[in-house]
């Protein structure tokens, strides 16, 4: 006759694995943000950059959409 002994191990150490995974994830995300901010800067614009805005000619100031006569 054979005797089978089943002694399950301690289940208390499983939460430590999740804590390490969360810390590693935070470090990876923070490193990615730092790398993006450091090496992906906006391109420099020329010193003579201007903005041109064209406004429609004034007309009827009554607020209606009818053309002035």
Structure commentary:
By secondary structure, this protein is mostly helical. The protein has one helix at residues 14-39. The longest helix has 26 residues, at 14-39. The model has no long low-confidence stretch (mean pLDDT 78).
Q: Strand portion, in percent?
A: under 5%
Q: What is the count of helical runs? A: 1
| Cα Rg | 34 Å
- Mean pLDDT across the residues is 78
Tell me the major beta sheet: none
- The overall strand count is 0
Instruction: List low-confidence stretches.
Output: none
- Overall morphology: elongated
Distance between the termini: 113 Å
Chart the SSEs and their pairings.
Layout: H1 14-39
Task: Give a summary of the structure in a few sentences.
With 69 residues, this protein is mainly alpha-helical. Helix content is 38%, strand content 0%.
Entry keywords:
single chain; 69 residues; mainly alpha; 1 helix
């Amino acid at each position: 006759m054979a005797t089978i002994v089943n002694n399950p191990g301690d289940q208390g150490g499983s939460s430590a694995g999740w804590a390490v995974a969360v810390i590693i994830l935070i470090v990876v995300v923070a490193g990615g943000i730092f790398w993006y901010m450091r090496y992906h800067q906006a391109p420099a614009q020329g010193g003579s950059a201007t903005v041109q805005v064209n406004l429609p000619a004034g007309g009827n100031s009554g607020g209606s959409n009818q053309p002035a006569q």
